[in-house]
Write a structure and sequence with these properties.
heterodimer, A: 501 residues, mainly alpha, two-stranded antiparallel ribbon, 21 helices, B: 122 residues, 62% helix, 0% strand, elongated
Chain lengths: 501, 122
């Protein structure tokens, strides 16, 4: 057991420790915020170290209590998991900084920071574990954290949204558990690396397909893929922006990550009947997100639909399964985790300035706050995938991959989806920021005392987005390396099982 | 034994689906509770049933000398029971709070998060 073994579990251990520490200071929200910021900083550093280790030395593992895989529970990290854990820590840190700037009372409720840290523990655990039942446990950890965050404040709409969110998410994790139970009965193992070869050797392909279908259903629900996305726009807009932002940035991506992991390692889509189905789901999700966004008048619901549309692009990468498509899909995941967060934060600031989230009532924000309007426009462009922002390159890669896979209609859907998103966000910007002639100027135009902390997270993400857009080559290379690890998981499998033979 | 349990699991799933089709949210959460119990039973059955052989290795041996019961499914179920129990408790409290705030548990009337367009132009 070396020091690098410990970095594998450190992000999760830090988040859990932070949760416990916050519980000690239960009635001291200020101390809790400070703990949260220190913990997420440490998580960021440890995940950064982990990314560097994995990028140079290949997948890393740590077996709980020294029981080697496939017998014990193993944490196994490849470049994809490490990169996602890194972005998770970054999003957590930025959200806590935003909440420091947003002084409305809901954030100073005592439960906020511990629940957020518990959720980050669940999300990081899901990205780092190498055991499918353990993955289920992390899913439950993250949803119990998210339930708490969603109802913090206890408004009517929140309770209503929480009921739908909780029901569907519980249903999804129960399907996940059913599938895992069946899979264990079929193969006698729960270790994902071990499952890769054991599932391929199962003779009863019909039952394997049933299990794969259950996983597709469970993770598709989590990821808000078509046609199971309705819970997302029904609930994501109800809590405070600081909560919506972390949900949009992290939670659906855990579902997408689980799909990527399960449908490359355990059930390679080419081996099952689901490759074609995934392509249809991906295309329909893109269009549903785009069309849904155009139809909205509440700006928070509008951006919730753009999150749904983004899921579609990630699924295109998974559905086509070529290294090029996987590269594009993974690039899009990293882009979307950051930019969805920024989008909800920017919307939060807009709602705060305008006193409403209804785009018809906002009107004229540009006159009141031109600099903020420019920042908002940049975030919208980044979401719609306009160059030079980070959303552009993964879409180019995905279009290329669709054409290479002889699916020109899919390339068309990607382009139409991008166009719909652009129309939706341009319409929202025009209505909310330009004068509409009749309405009075916005009521509240105060940022509060801590403008810096309010703006910093969005500005950091915009900076990263521009950086990823202008210097796309290294990002594409990293995503390509992670995609290669998915297409050919032998290094991952050897890292997990190598010691046990 | 397995066929009987398989049928029981099937019946429980069927009841769950029936409860999910209800408009009353209370019935829906009862359905969720039943579904998780059906799932535990399913894992138990899928793990293979072995009667009256404890999962113990005789003294001195490093591997079991004869067939033993598989303890892993029970460990999985124990984990799942604890989790589903906690989440069910949360859902009950959430339902009660929602009933206090919204004055209904009819899912058709729970439209606070997504107001209908015709009603208030939102």
């Amino acid at each position: 057991m070396t020091l690098t073994d410990w970095t594998v579990v450190l992000p999760v251990a830090l988040a859990l420790g932070g949760t416990a520490l916050c519980a000690v200071f239960w009635w001291r929200p200020v101390i809790q915020s400070a703990i949260g910021i220190v913990i997420t900083l440490l998580m960021l550093v440890s995940a950064g170290v982990l990314v560097c280790t994995v990028a140079t030395e290949g997948p890393q593992t740590m077996a709980m209590s020294g029981w080697p895989g496939p017998f014990g529970i193993v944490f196994a990290v490849d470049l994809l998991g490490a990169g996602l854990a890194f972005v998770t820590a970054l999003v957590g840190l930025l959200i806590l900084i935003y909440n420091f700037g947003d002084q409305s009372s809901d954030y100073r409720r005592v439960g906020y920071t511990p629940l957020l840290l518990a959720m980050l523990a669940g999300v990081s655990g899901a990205f780092l574990t190498g055991d499918i039942f353990n993955l289920y446990v992390w899913f439950e950890v993250l949803i119990i954290g998210s339930f708490g965050l969603l109802i913090l404040g206890g408004k009517k709409a929140q309770l209503d949204g929480a009921i739908k969110y909780a029901t569907l998410n519980l249903l999804a994790t129960t399907f996940f558990l059913i599938a895992t139970g069946l899979l264990y009965g079929l193969t006698g193992t729960l270790n994902m690396a071990d499952l890769a070869s054991k599932v391929a050797a199962v003779d009863n392909r019909a039952l394997v397909n049933v299990v794969a279908a259950l996983y597709l259903l469970a993770f598709g629900m989590k990821a808000a893929a078509f046609p199971l996305f309705f819970w997302l726009p029904a609930s994501y807009h109800t809590p405070k922006p600081g909560v919506s932002a972390v949900f949009a940035g992290l939670l659906t991506k855990v579902g997408v990550y689980a799909l990527y992991r399960v449908f490359t390692l355990i059930f390679p889509a080419s081996d099952t009947i689901f490759a074609d189905l995934l392509i249809w789901i991906a295309g329909a999700t893109i269009l549903a997100g785009g069309l849904g966004a155009i139809a909205q008048t509440d700006i928070r619901r509008l951006v919730a639909f753009t999150v749904v549309g983004g899921i579609g692009y990630m699924l295109v990468g998974l559905a086509l399964q070529s290294p090029l498509a996987l590269t594009g899909g993974l690039f899009y995941i990293f882009h979307s985790m950051l930019i969805s967060t920024a989008l909800f934060l920017a919307v939060g600031i807009a709602g705060r300035l305008g006193g409403s989230y209804d785009i018809a009532k906002l009107g004229g924000l540009y006159r009141a706050r031109p600099a903020f309007a420019m920042m908002f426009l940049v975030v919208l462009f980044a979401v719609a995938g306009v160059p030079p922002f980070s959303g552009f390159w993964p879409k180019v890669v995905l279009v290329q991959a669709s054409l290479a896979a002889d699916a020109p209609w899919l390339a068309g859907v990607i382009l139409v989806g991008g166009f719909l998103t652009l129309v939706a966000v341009a319409r929202a910007f025009a209505a909310a920021f330009w004068d509409n002639g009749e309405e009075e100027p916005p009521r509240a135009t105060h940022y509060g005392d801590r403008v810096g902390a309010l703006m910093l997270p969005t500005l950091v993400i915009i900076g990263l987005s521009v950086l990823m857009g202008l210097a796309a080559e290294p990002v594409v290379q990293l995503a390509g390396q992670a995609a290669a690890g998915l297409s050919d998981p032998s290094a991952y499998i050897e890292a997990v099982l190598g010691g046990s033979e | 034994m397995e066929p009987i349990l398989a049928v029981v699991v099937g019946i429980l799933f069927a009841i769950t689906v029936f409860l999910f089709l209800s408009r009353s949210y209370v019935r829906i959460i009862l359905g969720i509770f039943l579904l998780s119990n059906a799932t535990h039973l399913l894992i138990f059955t899928m793990g293979g049933l072995t009667l009256e052989v404890p999962p113990l290795i005789p003294p001195g041996a490093t591997v079991p000398t004869e067939a033993i019961a598989n303890p892993l499914p029970q460990a999985l179920i124990l984990t799942a029971i604890v989790i589903s129990f906690a989440l069910f408790a949360f859902l009950l409290v959430l339902t009660y709070r929602a009933y206090q705030a919204l004055h209904t548990v009819d899912v058709d009337e729970m439209r606070d998060a997504e107001p209908l367009v015709e009603e208030d132009g939102a």
